């Protein structure tokens, strides 16, 4: 079996991709920024580098034919060089995109959706054999509430319209199948969870998982902006995050996770049970 290069390997989704590939006996090389402190499952080869320095990626690609790509930036500016580097060595690319990409929109207004639309255009023109995974909101975003939950049991933040939040393990399970199986070249898979949930629902379900009543308290966008800027977050990131408050509710639920992995997509309640320890 050929070795797979996983980028974003220390992140919520990438770490799961690594873990699931290793469990399936697939050789993995993880592309990480901090090789000294990174802890990944035994047997994973570590390649140090940074996606903003394509020459570091070139070294990591030696002998690799298949790449899992996570794009951690707010613009696609550096992507042509990264994709050319990948195409110079590998053949297959699986990209983690967003379910918000609209094939009918000329130019998407939401900065994160626009980023992924731009990335997809570059990838489909790259000459690589691509597969695109368009994930809905990923459940692990809720880990960002852990501090507030532990402190006073109230999650305060801007509200985002309900969507079918997807467990990162399900995104990773699809990625693992697509990275190692045939028949997925040129496919765009939209991955959702099985239920549409609001932020208030998510907070309540985490409370049920840890046996404490919790609640979500909506904060006006202006207040959220001031707090995020005061925390030192870059203005472009703050605006991209706040743009998600203008997204409409999405009732889209797909069966793609089950079709590809053979098991139904996990509910947010299951995610909360899996992560109860993170909130206690
Ligand atoms: N969150 C959602 O709801 C959602 C929905 C749809 C799609 N997505 C896409 O999914 C991606 C992954 O999500 P996630 O939750 O797994 O993200 P995450 O936990 O924030 O992980 C990001 C990963 O990217 C790495 N990284 C950051 N900057 C890098 C750089 N300059 N060079 C190389 N690696 C770098 C990080 O490594 P370090 O440990 O070194 O920081 C980390 O491993 C997102 O970036 C987004 O594009 C997210």
UniProtKB/TrEMBL annotation:
Organism: Microbispora siamensis
InterPro entries, per database record: Ergot_Alk_Oxidoreductase (IPR051604), NAD(P)-bd_dom (IPR016040), NAD(P)-bd_dom_sf (IPR036291)
Domain NAD(P)-binding: 8-180
Lineage: Bacteria, Bacillati, Actinomycetota, Actinomycetes, Streptosporangiales
Coiled coil: none
SUPFAM superfamilies: NAD(P)-binding Rossmann-fold domains (SSF51735)
Protein name: Nucleotide-diphosphate-sugar epimerase
Pfam families recorded: NAD_binding_10 (PF13460)
């Amino acid at each position: 079996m050929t070795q797979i290069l996983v980028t974003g390997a220390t992140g919520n989704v990438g770490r799961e991709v690594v873990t699931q590939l290793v469990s399936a006996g697939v050789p993995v090389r993880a592309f990480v920024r901090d090789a000294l402190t990174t802890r990944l499952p035994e047997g994973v080869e570590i390649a140090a580098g940074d996606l903003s320095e394509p020459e570091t990626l070139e070294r990591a690609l030696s002998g690799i034919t298949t790449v899992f790509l996570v794009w951690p930036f707010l613009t696609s500016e550096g992507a042509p060089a990264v994709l050319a580097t990948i195409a110079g060595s590998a053949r297959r690319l699986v990209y983690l995109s967003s379910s918000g990409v609209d094939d009918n929109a000329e130019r998407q207004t939401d900065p994160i959706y626009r980023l992924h639309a731009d990335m997809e255009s570059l990838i489909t023109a790259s000459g690589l054999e691509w597969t695109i995974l368009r994930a809905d909101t990923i459940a692990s975003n809720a880990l960002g509430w852990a501090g507030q939950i532990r402190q006073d049991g109230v999650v305060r933040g801007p509200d985002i319209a309900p969507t079918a939040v997807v467990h990162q393990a399900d995104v990773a399970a699809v990625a693992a199948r697509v990275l190692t199986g045939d028949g997925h070249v040129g496919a765009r898979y939209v991955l959702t969870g099985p239920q549409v949930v609001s932020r208030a629902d998510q907070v309540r379900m985490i409370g049920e998982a840890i046996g404490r009543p919790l609640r979500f308290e909506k904060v006006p966008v202006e207040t959220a902006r001031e707090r995020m800027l005061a925390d030192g977050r870059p203005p472009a990131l703050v605006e991209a995050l706040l743009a998600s408050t203008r997204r409409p509710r999405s009732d889209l639920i797909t069966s793609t996770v089950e079709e590809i992995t053979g098991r139904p997509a996990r509910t947010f309640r299951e995610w909360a049970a899996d992560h109860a320890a993170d909130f206690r």
